[in-house]
Structure formats: structure tokens, C-alpha cells
Write a structure and sequence with these properties.
Number of domains: 2
Structural class: mainly alpha
Helix content: 40-55%
Number of helices: 6
């Protein structure tokens, strides 16, 4: 899984491997791989407020050729990149409106633990209700 994350991170600014649990005997190896490849590790809990970043990812150079390829095969990704480009290239006159649209479309964090629990239930994400208490 780690090397799949390395491969997929070639087109991203940051790359993370997201795991549900980890045994103590593999932490040192993940730290070594993090130092070598820059892939971060996130331990994801059913309650996202209890999740943690075990190792921080390192910034990558952006691979525009791969981004272009992904845009050609995924309409939603292409739309997302177009909106990012609109913000990055907007004149001062339109910058605030472009930023607001982008923020409204893609920044919908869960507000509290109850909302996180309801999200898990709605999308059939495994959860343990006690994680939210």
C-alpha cells in the first residue's frame, strides 16, 4: 500500500497514506519510508476529531502532465482544476468572488462529533458510536 501511495502522489502536492490501525512493530519502518519518499501517514478514526497525523507529508513538485491526463479521464477532477486555475489567474477585481466560490464548493468540514456520526451513518462508513461520546 505504501508504494501505491508513492506512485499516486506523483501528481499531488502532498501525499498521504491513510490507515485505520497500525501495529507498533511497523512504525519505525513507516518513519524510514516517510523520510525517504515524503509520504505522510494519517491514522483515521471513525470519529474524525480523534484522527491523527502520524508522519507529516513532504511537499512535491507538481506534475502538470499527470494532472492534464487526470483531467481528461475525470470530469469532476477537471472541473476542480478549472476552478483552482480561475482563482490563481483571477484579476484583483474577481479574486474575492472566485475564492468564495471555491471555498463554498469544496470546504465543507464536519462541525462536530454528532455531524461526523451522522455522516458515517449516511454513507455506510464503519463506526463505533462510543467513539463519538
Amino acid at each position: 500500500m505504501f508504494f501505491q501511495a508513492v506512485s499516486n502522489s506523483s501528481w499531488s502536492y502532498f501525499g498521504y497514506l491513510v490507515i485505520f490501525e497500525i501495529s507498533d512493530n511497523i512504525i519505525d519502518e513507516l518513519e524510514r519510508l516517510n523520510n525517504s519518499f515524503g509520504i505522510g501517514v494519517i491514522i483515521l478514526k471513525a470519529n474524525p476529531f480523534k484522527s491523527q497525523i502520524l508522519f507529516q507529508a513532504r511537499k512535491n513538485k507538481i506534475d502538470y502532465q499527470t494532472i492534464d491526463k487526470l483531467c481528461n479521464v475525470n470530469a469532476k477532477y477537471s472541473e476542480f482544476i478549472s476552478k483552482i486555475e480561475a482563482v490563481l489567474t483571477a484579476s484583483e477585481k474577481y479574486l474575492k468572488a472566485s475564492e468564495k466560490e471555491l471555498f463554498t464548493l469544496y470546504n465543507n468540514p464536519l462541525k462536530d462529533e454528532e455531524e461526523a456520526l451522522q455522516y458515517c451513518i449516511k454513507y455506510n462508513i464503519p463506526h463505533n458510536k462510543k467513539d463519538f461520546e
